[in-house]
Write a structure and sequence with these properties.
alpha/beta; 10 helices; 43% helix
Length: 308
Amino acid sequence: MTSKELLYVKTVADEKSISRAAKKLFIAQPSLSQSIQRIEEALGTPLFNRNTKGLTLTFAGERYCQMASQVLKMYEDFELEISDINNLRTGRVHMGITNHLGTLTLARILPEYRRICPYVELYIHEENTATLEQMLLRGELDFVIMHAPRDISPSQIHYDIMARDPFVIAIHPQHRLIQKAVKKPGFPYPILDLKLLAKEPFLMLHKEQRIRQITDAVLLKAGISRPSIALTLRNYETALLLAARGLGTTLIPLQYFQIASYEYCPALLWIEEKYDAWWDMCIATLQNGFLSKADQLFIRLVKEQFKE
């Protein structure tokens, strides 16, 4: 039973004539007559009484037309809804973002997004990267704003890189190693060779957090495969405060340091380029996944903001 068949029966019922219905539907009368006969044969009962005065509905025909009216109205409403979705007058977006990127990103993007499409429902899920990647793979999220893994091997997730952020060393302001850091033109902080941290205690985040994963990779490249871990934390701001108080050393993205405020401020040291101490902010989506116009708009605004 197709929408075309529903429309044929309803139009014939309204016009009480095959010929008039055929003209209204812009099809040949024999074709319409054959279509009605096929529908009746498929149902196993006549829908129309045929007499010299024209066509009238049987009881089955009345019920069919009632149903047809309801279904065709649903089709019409759905087409209007699709039109609204395509024109951003309605819709729903499920996006994921890490907690700290939410602080960096959402206040910049949401006012403009709300101005353009005020009636699109927006669901924001704030989790760590590992959880967000799993939600994306399960189809619970349309896209995720996050930091890409260091090794982007072929997978079901596509990472669209937007911006690179360097990691820096956060250390106690009077730490003895600061004297061994070298100031160079063009660098915002003195440069310290990471190998000098081999015997230092570290303040680390949990292994499922991307900062920890990048930190482990950077230290490994410096030959520090088993760093001494003084504390394992979940909040990078706490790690920075403790580094400022001399409880250990931590590596932190420069951008995260710049958005935080501290009662105790650590000293920052630059990391040599050979250690690849950085991470990439990205938009993560499923490979060949569907993105609505509302999704695409949000992603475009994010990219424009960080391009600037």
